[in-house]
């Protein structure tokens, strides 16, 4: 029998074994102590850490308030899509009681470029970035909320109903003083005026002189807030607020009002203007004609610079400075819109020896069109400077929660002075010698003033001989004013006088307002049932008819004297045969294309609208009006739709739109 001896460990091997066992025990003790530290000593801390890592917070953006005109026409709305569709697009977050948007829903502007700069637009984060959207964002935005959602280790959502939620608060809707029909007329006439004079830009304001309500504020080039990132340079600028310019002769009402109020001059006082030149230090003030002796009244009608330099000398610097300041020049009007400039008005201590005379004729002072509008409104309403108002009130759930009151600022002069000055301004238009005869409207007395001002070279600081700002400001009827309108054209070519470029735009605006069946002014001013027929010009311009309704297309073509034909049976114009803005003659034929023709033999079968090429906003509106559910991807114009246009429309139909 073989006997195997048990192997014994040498001293070195025994030492290594003890070392390994010791290290193992040490590691095990460390792991156990760490477990004890985590599970027992700091259990609550690590439980909270795990909770924080598995729970995420999501913003719940509020529904933004909408913007309406004074009659309730929507100017800025939210995309009205089905909630199920928004969930599929990842735009909604569920909570226990309701559904709230995780990120802002697309903002739509149904009227496209109408008052685009005034209304402004909203950024991707849901906050207003310009215009009313920015200036009144604190009302429109509402209050954001939040929700908590649990996720597992693989970032999968774990549904729990007991997690806290703070619901968002819906924004308030804003009602503007703006009148869509007046705004449309102002923009159409401004577009024509800019095209005829080849001006670089222009602006129009129509205002109620008694309340300060802005009924229209148009700025050219126009701006479409639906596609704000794709607009040409400068289109976003609201020239009625942001452009400062030397007003020229429209500013003469300040010196005229001061002279009449202070008793320095009366209407029939004679002023010597000599041979049309008047030297002040090293500067010569010119009149366009040698007028000789003129009365105060005549000096306004013919716009004599020399006469007004002498009127200012009679007033003196202190009194004239006080009137200019009280009229509100050199300070913002407080309309509440971003981008408004205060203008430039030097303090009295910085006046030179000739500033008094040159400022009286509208030089050495820079203004905005809105400041000039409020100045003329004061003459029209009897001498009170009114704060311009763009918002009438704020609404929530269809109920007015806060009303914005009319705000008089100060009395500038007496009602008697206002009547006397109005009589002088009426001579500018109604007298054959007046500079504003191109603003005459048959059957209505117009009180107004022309303005032509050279622009200053920003480099040389000298007046440029080939760049002007032309303007006309007026109100009607002169004996009992209803509306005030002011027109400004920047850098008109060839003919640059305000009486020949801006005054005809004023006339067209007034004529179309009185002719409009949507507005009350024709019947109110001219008598019940009477209107002024819209003039048919010898040359006209093709309006932009795309995206307008049939009724609006018919109305516009009638105003422009164009013969109209429709191709298609839809309600919205998709394109037109004549390019917008080109010149045309009355009687020229224009074809407006709507939807493709439907089969005449099947009138009882309702069809899916043809939406290809249509702006997404209009496509959504059209489908929503027919009760069709919508699924949307992309932005811009519709490039694909399913079902196709012309297919039979079935109950509870769903239309998928792809835009790009």
| The CATH top-level class label of the largest domain | Alpha Beta
Mean pLDDT: 83
Number of domains: 5
Share of helix, binned: 25-40%
Structural class: alpha+beta
Residues in β-strands, percent: 15-25%
SS elements, strand count: 33
Low-confidence stretches: 94-99, 528-537, 597-604
The biggest beta sheet, please? 6 strands, mixed
Radius of gyration: 35 Å
For the terminal residues, how far apart are their CA atoms? 96 Å
CATH topology of the largest domain: Beta-lactamase
Could you state the oligomeric state of the chains shown? single chain
Put simply, the count of helices is 19
CATH architecture annotation of the largest domain: 3-Layer(aba) Sandwich
Describe the structure in your own words:
The protein has 660 residues and is an alpha+beta fold. The chain has five domains: 16-53; 57-176, Penicillin-binding protein 2a (Domain 2) (Alpha-Beta Complex), CATH 3.90.1310; 180-526, DD-peptidase/beta-lactamase superfamily (Beta-lactamase), CATH 3.40.710; 540-593, Trypsin Inhibitor V, Chain A (2-Layer Sandwich); 616-659, no CATH class. The protein contains 19 helices and 33 strands. The strands form eleven sheets. The chain has a six-stranded mixed sheet with strand order 6-3-2-10-20-21, with no helix packed on it. Strands 12-11-25-24-23 form a five-stranded antiparallel sheet, with helices on both faces. Strand 11 (201-207) and strand 12 form a beta hairpin. Helix 9 (252-261) crosses helix 11. The protein is globular, with a radius of gyration of 35 Å. The termini are far apart. Residues 94-99, 528-537 and 597-604 have low confidence and may be disordered.
């Amino acid at each position: 029998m073989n006997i195997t001896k048990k192997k014994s460990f040498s001293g070195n091997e025994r030492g290594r074994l003890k070392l390994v066992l010791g290290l193992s025990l040490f590691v095990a003790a460390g792991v156990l102590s760490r477990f004890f530290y985590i599970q027992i000593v700091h259990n609550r801390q690590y439980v909270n850490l795990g909770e924080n890592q598995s729970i995420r917070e999501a913003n719940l953006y509020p529904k933004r308030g909408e913007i309406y005109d004074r009659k309730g026409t929507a100017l800025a709305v939210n995309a009205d899509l089905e909630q199920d569709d928004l969930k599929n697009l990842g735009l909604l977050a569920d909570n226990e009681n309701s559904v709230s948007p995780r990120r802002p829903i697309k903002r739509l502007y149904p009227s496209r470029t109408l008052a685009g700069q005034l209304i402004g637009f909203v950024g991707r984060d849901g906050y207003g970035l310009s215009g009313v959207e920015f200036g009144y964002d604190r009302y429109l935005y509402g209050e954001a909320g939040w929700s908590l959602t649990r996720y597992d280790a693989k970032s999968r959502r774990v549904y729990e109903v007991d997690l806290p939620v703070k619901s968002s608060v819906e924004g308030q809707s804003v009602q503007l003083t703006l009148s869509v029909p007046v705004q449309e007329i102002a923009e159409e006439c401004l577009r024509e005026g800019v095209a005829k004079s080849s001006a670089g830009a222009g602006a129009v304001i129509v205002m109620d002189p008694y309340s300060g309500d802005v009924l229209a504020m148009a700025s050219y080039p126009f701006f479409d807030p639906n596609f704000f990132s794709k607009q040409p340079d400068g289109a976003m600028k609201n020239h009625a607020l942001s452009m400062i310019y030397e007003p020229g002769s429209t500013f003469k009402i300040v010196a005229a009002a001061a002279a009449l109020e202070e008793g320095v001059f009366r209407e029939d006082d004679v002023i010597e203007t000599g041979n049309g030149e008047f030297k002040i230090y090293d500067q010569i003030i010119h009149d366009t004609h040698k007028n000789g002796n003129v009365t105060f009244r005549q000096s306004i009608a013919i716009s004599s610079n020399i006469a007004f330099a002498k009127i200012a000398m009679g007033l003196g610097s202190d009194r004239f400075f006080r009137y200019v300041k009280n009229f509100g020049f050199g300070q913002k009007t407080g309309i509440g819109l971003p981008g408004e400039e205060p203008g430039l008005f030097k303090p009295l201590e910085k006046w030179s020896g000739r500033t008094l005379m040159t400022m009286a004729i509208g030089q050495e002072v820079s203004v905005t069109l809105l400041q000039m509008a409020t100045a003329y409104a004061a003459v029209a309403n009897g001498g009170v400077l009114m704060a311009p108002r763009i918002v009438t009130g704020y609404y929530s759930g269809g109920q007015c929660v806060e009303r914005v009151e009319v705000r008089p600022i100060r009395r500038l002069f007496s009602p008697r002075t206002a009547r006397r000055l109005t009589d002088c301004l009426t001579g500018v238009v109604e007298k054959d010698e007046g500079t504003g005869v191109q603003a005459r409207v048959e059957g209505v007395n117009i009180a107004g003033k022309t303005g032509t001002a050279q622009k200053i070279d920003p480099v040389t600081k000298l007046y440029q001989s080939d760049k002007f700002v032309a303007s006309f400001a007026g109100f009607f009827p002169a004996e009992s004013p209803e509306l005030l309108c002011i027109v400004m054209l920047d850098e008109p070519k060839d003919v640059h006088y305000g009486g020949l470029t801006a005054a005809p735009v004023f006339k067209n605006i007034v004529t179309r307002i009185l002719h409009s069946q949507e507005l009350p002014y024709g019947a109110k001013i001219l008598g019940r049932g009477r209107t002024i027929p819209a003039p048919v010009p010898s040359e006209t311009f093709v309006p932009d008819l795309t995206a307008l309704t049939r009724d609006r297309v018919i109305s516009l073509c009638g105003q422009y004297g164009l013969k109209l034909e429709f191709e298609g049976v839809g309600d919205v114009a998709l394109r037109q045969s004549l390019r917008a803005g080109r010149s045309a003659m009355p009687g020229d034929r224009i074809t407006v294309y709507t939807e493709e023709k439907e089969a005449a033999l099947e009138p009882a079968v309702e069809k899916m609208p043809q939406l290809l090429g249509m702006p997404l906003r209009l496509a959504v509106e059209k489908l929503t009006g027919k009760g069709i559910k919508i699924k949307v991807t992309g932005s811009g114009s519709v490039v694909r739709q399913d079902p196709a246009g012309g297919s039979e429309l079935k109950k509870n139909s769903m239309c998928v739109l792809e835009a790009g």
